[in-house]
Specification:
The structure holds 2 protein chains of 2 kinds.
Chain A (H helix, E strand, L loop, with lengths): L2 E12 L2 E12 L3 E6 L5 H8 L7 E6 L2 E2 L5 H4 L2 E4 L11 H11 L5 H10 L13 H13 L5 E5 L7 H18 L2 E5 L3 H7 L2 E6 L2 E7 H7 E6 L12 E8 L2 E7 L3 H9 L3 E5 L3 H9 L6 H16 L1
Chain B lengths: L12 H15 L11 H8 L3 H13 L3 E4 L3 E4 L8 H21 L4 H15 L12
Antiparallel strand pairs in B: 1-2
Classes of the chains: A alpha/beta, B mainly alpha.
Amino acid sequence: MSTVLSFEGVHRHFGPHQVLRGLNLTVQQGQIYAFLGRNGAGKTTALRILMGFLAPHRGRATVLGVDSQALRPADRARIGYVGEGHLLDPTMRVKDVIAFERGTRATFRLDLAARAVQRCGLRLGQFVATLSRGQRAQLSLVLAVAAAPEVLVFDDPAMGLDVVMRREFLDAMIDLLADSGCAVLFSSHILTDVERIADRVGILHQGALLVDATMDDLRRRLRRCVVLGGPEPALGGAAQVLRRRVRQGATELLWLDPDARELARFAQEGRLQDLGTPTLEELFLDLTGIEPPGLLSESVREVARAQEVVQ
Amino acid sequence: MLIRIDPRSAEPIFEQIVFAVKAALARGTATPGDKLPSVRELARDLAINPNTVVRAYEQLERDGVVVRRQGSGCFLTDRGSELGLVQRRRQLQELLRRAATDAFHLGFTAAEVRTALEQSLEQLQFDKNDQGKDRP
């Protein structure tokens, strides 16, 4: 597999405010990477650096092997980018927006765009000002994909869309991926979508990735349980507690790599209740919630490093 | 055949698809010769990454459960027909040994495990759909 997108030790601050502190992330060919983090975590800053709209203060980002600060128009033609808020000129009609976009990229395919617009139920003569937020999001997607890009970068594409519009947007994205197999990096807050569609997940926290793992790994290796009574059971092997918190008087544990049989035995003895695999939302809350991550972030980073070695 | 997944399960999505297809064959809700949905169709239907579907279909192909015909899609094959009898027996033994070991650690007796296996076979209605010819 070849690397399509990368951040290598990227730092960026705005005045005294340090936003990125050594961000490392790579997206491989054909991979769908979900870039998560709380509001203000620095996702948009990172994506703007990746697109060359903003310069890093240290480190570098690359797209298709080219330094993001040296992207030429020919390189940009290979990238589909949809920014936050879907900024489009409200005084233009849909067909004008398409014509304009076509002029900027040699690989832009008018037939693809026209078909996609139709499928979304948009009319070519409609003014952008009259489009709903969902329609604007779809038009942005159409513009990004009609040039048959090799890589797609989305900054929170589903923001502000209702459930139906979100599903349609997802469908359009799936269609595109089935055709092209291009790599995608997208930031999102809709974790239920991420659970379905992403191959790999990165959680940005305090300027660096707190988690960088495949969805399959997160599913297989994490387990939550509640201690029911007596002392906290100690699991052997490689098991480690990532998070320990007391809720309603009971201790809740988040385990990494517990031995399933050991867990089952403790559950049978009535010492703990197995809550199963955490959802992405539970994990996200556990890791980036109001309580400081403390030791936890260190152990997760170690896991991420160990994974890199394995790969 | 209806392939469904639980995105919150501990099991990777591609493995859930593999199991769903194998279970449909075992239950008789799908029969050899049936065509699997196209990658795009299934990916859209389940709202998942098309690559995940591709991975599942490749695994099914390796397991001898489906064959891919260029241009026309993936089709279910006769159960186990791709593998020799000795190899199939060995795989079965390995599967059962692993299940028995885990059951022991969960604190079940041999009799309880036997009953549970009988129940699972009944639920799958193995015998009802048995064509007999591939039986070891």
